[in-house]
């Protein structure tokens, strides 16, 4: 079919690359916290100025008659806090270490949420210095505000006095004396002058009280938590994006349906993943084969008519050796004459499973012309009256695979066909053992085992390699699949059928 696989799932991609994704998330959170500590509010100090409400226009020329008017008044005074006049006075008190520009960037003032005070916030990078600057700015504001109120009152008083003096001079110049109207006007002017003196004295600097500057330690913790949460969210998004992009470039065979989309050859069977203890029982040949392998054995006999089957995995660990042993056991129990060949002469995994790893005879000496098929064949009994034969890997000296002769390998496979209903050749992945590539074209069909989550690129390389060698893929066995209730029940049923014997018996005798 060779249909494209669906786009990877984001959660699946995150799980596949969970370690790198976790590293991205942790790294992003750490960067966020470091940035918060470096440029955050660790050096911030805050002071509060609570204002008096001006109830007369005589002192400042501004009269507050409503709540909204008072809010406007507080906002205006907040602007006065950060004016060059106030900051200049604060700079003088501080000794002139910072410029007006630096103070303007570090100092902010705003009306509080309830609108009755001014919050002065200073961030110069150092908590102690920020506190000094905040207190200096508050003191400078009080001083300049008092001077502003005093100057406004003096201007008003001067105008009232000039008006009174002018009125008195006009009365004296007219010579008519002080009438009742003039007397009332002079009295009103004197009363207003007195009121302004009292109001300006009471209003003073317009400050009810001041909360001295303190460092905002709670704000630091809040900022760290906030930045950590933001970093976590950004890290998750970044990790998900990276994981999805990697998963999209490195598509994996997630289930049997994906394998069916990628190939035209049939799926011979799907083998579920088992627990560690259950996996060990698969290599005990006395135990009846798993139900899924019995199905593979039946389908394989109907698919490959010639009888010589090479079994290899896309990569090491895909279950090719287990598949060979399980299918051989199933076929032997069905009454077939079965021969198993261990062509993985480097690892000799199958030979280890049948306790023939130390046998000198086998495929390695056959491939170098030092032994024959007849002399290398061994009998494995898996039950009363049930047996199959094995050609082990054999003992080979270091570098012997370099001297393997393709003609001898092919001749051995031709000889092995005789007298058997099914010949199973356990091949290592061809990319790791090119010396046995001559066995691929000699086989009637090649069974390729594909492990769950195996990359699509690796599967395609394995297929291309088999086709280039002249082999024909008979089908696939999907291994380590998600376990279903049906396959679990089958496995449990087979465990109940296990005989009392715990291992297969190896009978060392040559011939067929």
Automatic annotation (TrEMBL):
Residues 487-512 are annotated as: Disordered. The keyword Repeat does not apply. The chain crosses the membrane at residues 20-45. It holds the Pfam family CBP_BcsQ. Residues 487-497 have a biased composition (Polar residues). It comes from the Bacteria. The keyword Transmembrane applies. Keywords: Membrane, Transmembrane, Transmembrane helix. InterPro entries: Bact_polysacc_biosynth/exp (IPR050445), Cellulose_synthase_operon_BcsQ (IPR017746), P-loop_NTPase (IPR027417). PANTHER family: CAPSULAR EXOPOLYSACCHARIDE FAMILY (PTHR32309:SF31), TYROSINE-PROTEIN KINASE (PTHR32309). This is CobQ/CobB/MinD/ParA nucleotide binding domain-containing protein. It comes from Actinopolyspora righensis.
């Amino acid at each position: 079919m060779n249909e494209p696989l669906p786009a990877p799932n984001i959660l699946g991609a995150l799980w596949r690359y969970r370690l790198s994704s976790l590293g991205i998330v942790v790294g992003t959170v750490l960067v966020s916290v470091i940035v918060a500590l470096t440029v955050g509010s660790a050096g911030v100090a805050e002071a509060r100025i609570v204002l008096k409400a001006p109830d007369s226009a005589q002192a400042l020329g501004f009269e507050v008659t409503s709540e909204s008017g008072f809010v406007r008044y507080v906002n205006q005074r907040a602007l006065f806090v950060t004016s060059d006049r106030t900051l200049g006075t604060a700079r003088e008190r501080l000794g002139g270490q910072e410029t007006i520009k630096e103070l303007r960037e570090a100092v902010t003032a705003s009306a509080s949420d309830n609108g009755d005070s001014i919050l002065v916030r200073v961030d110069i990078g150092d908590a102690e210095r920020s506190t000094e600057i905040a207190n200096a700015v508050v003191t400078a504001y009080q001083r300049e505000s008092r001077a502003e109120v005093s100057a406004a009152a003096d201007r008003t008083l001067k105008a009232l006095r000039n008006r009174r003096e002018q009125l008195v001079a006009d009365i004296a110049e007219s010579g008519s004396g002080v009438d009742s109207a003039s007397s009332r006007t002079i009295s009103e002017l004197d009363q207003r002058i007195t009121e302004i003196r009292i109001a300006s004295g009471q209003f003073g600097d317009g400050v009810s009280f001041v909360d001295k500057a303190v460092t905002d330690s709670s704000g630091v913790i809040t900022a760290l938590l906030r930045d950590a949460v933001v970093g976590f969210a950004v890290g998750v998004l970044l990790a998900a994006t990276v994981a999805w992009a990697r998963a999209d470039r490195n598509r994996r065979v997630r289930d049997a349906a994906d394998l069916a989309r990628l190939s035209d050859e049939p799926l011979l069977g799907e083998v579920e993943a088992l627990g560690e203890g259950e996996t060990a029982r698969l290599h005990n040949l006395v135990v009846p084969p798993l139900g899924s392998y019995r199905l593979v054995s039946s389908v394989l006999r109907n698919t490959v008519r010639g009888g010589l089957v090479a079994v290899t995995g896309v990569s090491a660990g895909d279950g090719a050796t287990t598949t060979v042993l399980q299918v051989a056991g199933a076929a032997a129990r069905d009454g077939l004459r079965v021969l198993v060949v261990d062509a993985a002469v480097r690892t000799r995994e199958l030979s280890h499973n049948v306790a023939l790893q130390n046998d000198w005879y086998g495929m390695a000496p056959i491939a170098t012309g030092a032994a024959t098929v007849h002399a290398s064949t061994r009998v494995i009994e898996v039950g009363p009256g049930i047996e199959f034969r094995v050609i082990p890997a054999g003992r080979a000296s270091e570098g012997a695979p370099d001297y393997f002769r393709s003609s001898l390998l092919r001749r051995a496979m031709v000889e092995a066909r005789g007298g058997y209903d099914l010949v199973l050749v356990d091949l290592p992945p061809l990319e790791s053992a090119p010396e046995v590539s001559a066995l691929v074209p000699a086989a009637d069909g090649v069974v390729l085992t594909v492990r769950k989550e195996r990359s699509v690129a690796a599967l395609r390389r394995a297929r291309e390699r088999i086709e280039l060698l002249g082999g024909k893929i008979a089908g696939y066995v999907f291994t380590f699949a998600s376990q279903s209730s049906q396959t679990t029940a089958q496995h449990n049923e087979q465990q109940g059928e296990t005989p009392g014997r715990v291992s297969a018996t190896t009978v060392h005798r040559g011939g067929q």
